């Protein structure tokens, strides 16, 4: 039987998750959910849900019905105590409670909120893994896999058959021939894996505010895709006039001061796909973020690489143009010219953090 306190705890958790779902759009656009990420949990600060509790005074300060007092007089320490420094304020304090929500729950909330369709991946029959399943019994094996219940049943049958079992003294000592062991079969299971390639302009026109938008949006993209695939492999490419593959920390904390050649990032992405992710076996997602600045003569090379080497092999190629006070915003116009030719080319203009919500829906809303 469940204890009352356990039922109350479960009810409290349901209330908390309800609050998270109600305010999901706010968390998405402001990034409060990305404060701490452990192995598979994310810490989310949410408005505190007050629980009634007793407040105790200091020892020796009197108790209920002791000393003078009027109705409504607080019991215990009040505003007149000397522990705090400075003047007392007259406004209520903000209460924050941290609650842990699994990434699987976040993905489900995101799908419900944005009405995201489930992805139909490719490569189901080409990438496989071997898994052992204990589903049989055999006469030999390591002692660690001995099946105790079956061994004793076999010994009991032997004693009964030999008329050696005494119900008044039910001692059963298995012999060597009674021992049975768990056994397994190895099965090959198809898997569906995905590769995510992030590309970002890190030239001087991309400020820290724009990179924060990219970080928040990439977190939610990762969360959704991880819920759809057995395995995710993420790569990061940064560029100004030159491009290179980097780790996650470098991706979000690098700023260069050179010019901008987007084609350099496309060339590195092409090399990564050819080297690590055969398109027939992998579901490939490219997410590019830029403020739209590009060297004018480079636009033609970008379109050629996209059409020949990237768009034919990607489930999605998503371009997010982050508004910057320094960027021209011209590049998205070039992509609009070929948008109708490629169903997997998704374009989104991200003016500020409030636009992250709609941008995620633009990118993931087609179920590819």
Provide an overview of this structure.
- By secondary structure, the chain is of the alpha/beta class.
- It has three domains: 1-49 and 96-115, no CATH class; 127-188, no CATH class; 193-364, von Willebrand factor, type A domain (Rossmann fold, 3-Layer(aba) Sandwich), CATH 3.40.50.
- 32% of the residues lie in helices and 22% in strands.
- It has helices at residues 4-22, 24-30, 103-114, 148-161, 208-226, 248-253, 262-276, 299-310, 331-336, 356-364, and strands at residues 36-37, 41-47, 96-102, 127-138, 181-191, 193-201, 231-239, 243-246, 283-290, 316-322, 345-350.
- The strands form three sheets. A six-stranded mixed sheet has the order 8-7-6-9-10-11. Strands 1-2-3 form a three-stranded antiparallel sheet. Strands 4-5 form a two-stranded antiparallel sheet.
- The protein is elongated and about 95 Å long.
